[in-house]
Amino acid sequence: MKRGAPLRRTPFKAKAAVQAKRERAPLVLVPRAEASRAVMALVLPKPAAKPVLKTPDRKSQAIRDSARDEECTVRITGVCNHDPKTTVWSHAPLGAAGKAGALKALDLCGCYSCAACHDVVDGRAPRPAGYTHEQVLLDWFFGHLRSLVRLKQKGLV
Ligand SMILES: [Zn+2]
């Protein structure tokens, strides 16, 4: 059996209301800023991953050794023993200075401190009466600045 003429597909006719709406509503493009988050993920390139920066000169034996016979720069009132024989290089007890877990802060982020002040700053000895932790840190930061001046005078920074 053969068909003489091919089958024809006729489009479905939209209902009159739908047809009228199509003619009224112009095509609206959604600005990128208003697109959904999922669409934005497809549109915007991912930012490059930040490289983990390493600090090559964390340690300075010259700075640590320079603490020998230095006077204390922290000078916590009622605590400081002002004994240069006990002075050590005190590292900042703060993550902002590069301290992380057992890793000490950078050597540059430190100060000359006697053993008594050092113990209070690191929490091995109690703070003096009326002292807050912030006041101890403030004394330490003054010591840090005094120490930076000393390091500069010695030509170590
Ligand atoms: Zn001291």
3D architecture notes:
This protein is mainly α and 157 residues long. 32% of the residues lie in helices and 5% in strands. The protein has a domain at 61-154: Erythroid Transcription Factor GATA-1, Chain A (2-Layer Sandwich). The chain has 5 helices and 2 strands. The structure holds zinc ion. Zinc ion binds at residues 72, 74-75, 80, 113-114, 116-117.
Q: What are the main properties of this structure?
A:
157 residues; mainly alpha; Erythroid Transcription Factor GATA-1, Chain A; two-stranded antiparallel ribbon; 2 strands; 32% helix; rod-shaped; binds zinc ion
CATH topology name of the domain at 61-154, in short, is: Erythroid Transcription Factor GATA-1, Chain A
E-strand count: 2
- The span between the termini is 101 Å
Which cofactors or ions or other ligands sit in this model? zinc ion
> What best-fitting shape do the alpha-carbon axes yield?
rod-shaped
If you compute it from the alpha carbons, what radius of gyration comes out, rounded to the nearest whole angstrom? 36 Å
CATH homologous superfamily assignment of the domain at 61-154: prophage-derive protein ybcO
Unreliable runs = none
Helix content: 25-40%
Compressed to H and E, one letter per element, the order equals HHHEEHH
Q: Supply the number of helical segments.
A: 5
